[in-house]
Please model this.
Amino acid sequence: MKRVFVLALPCVIVGGHAEAVNTRPAPPVTQFTQEDIQTVSPPGLTVEVSTSCPRENDDPKFASYPLSIARNHGGGSCAKTNWSGVVTGDIWTNRCTTRTCTRSVPNVVAKNVADANPIGGQTNLPVGLPYFSIADANAATLAELDWWLGGSHWLSITEAVGVPDNHVYTCVIDPCGDGSISFQDDVNNGNIQMQGWSPSGTAPWTYAVPTSEYVVMVENKLTTDPANLQNYVVEMDYERADNIGAAGTVAFLTQVSQLLQNTSSLGPNELPHAYGFSVRGDELLPVGEKGYKNTNTWQSGLDAVSIPQIMALPGFNYYSILLWANNRYHNIETSWEQSLGVVNGGTMPQQCAPIMQHVMMAFEIAQTSLADAQTANNLLASWCVPIVQPDFSAGGVLGGPDCYNGQQVMFPAKWGALIGEPTSCTDGQRQNL
Model:
């Protein structure tokens, strides 16, 4: 049955002008569908999810989770889909993992890639990639980005920081379509010397890591996705913890922007076309306040000094503000407002100010309550936020202890509250997307 939305647009006075508030329509009586998202826009709400593509618009796996953008590494199920949404790229920035860089956790190579050989009596440890300086970690990220988008200068980037060509892998696991040996094969057959890694530097080990630096490309090139699904935007997941400062962060993301815009020193027209980029980081805090888990022992380089400069770079799309239950302030709304002040250079922007068209909300479903999801929905509306990322990270298990009469809160209920649907504590079968 076709649903009809009645859209009310109250006005507020901002800077002497009347501007429409991006309010949500009354929630539909049944689930929100892809067609509904099209109907509501504009002003609408774009829903971007870190997931593979639905097979089709009425894919039962996604029936309770409407989305308009699938964010992933490309290829895979998104190469064969009848879904009407779009695909955006997602790439993690690499980290310096030495003690001088606060011993940041290394990025894992890929899901289910493990070292079958024993390390101190432990086997099947997930494989991570260590980098011994910030410059080396940044070069690895730029090389992965260039290769991922169809460039040809990725070896030049790794060679410039001293990584041998035979330490650069274009295939993670078998089968390798390019005829090369997979990185996992060389780990398991002993061709790559491995050791244990943990935050403390002692056993028990958390990861198996090579004893020297390696660069391993992602499993699928983003360019293998159908052109009609691409929106040509890459999201840089910049959850750094390696003592990089604001100036270093701006310098690195300027290199990213130049590569994506085909204006880098690597050569003209390196990529087939230009890409925009978005940035996601950890919880944002004013300078001088304590950070992640109430500590001040790390620095991400994303702050009130660097973020405005990053947002002014050519091709910039969105800055993604992370909201989660374990935020520094123990309050979703306070965390949101503090983060907005950082993004705006140290002062609170006006509601629905132009900068808000470049702000995305990343909302962690797993770690937040139904009430938090409802609060976030109100913030999306009152601040005119154009796009939201429901995030299943940190375990992503189904349910929670904060529903009616002791029942569990299932993901569909929280998701519905976040994007303005009717909510209930109905049972669910699926753990994640």
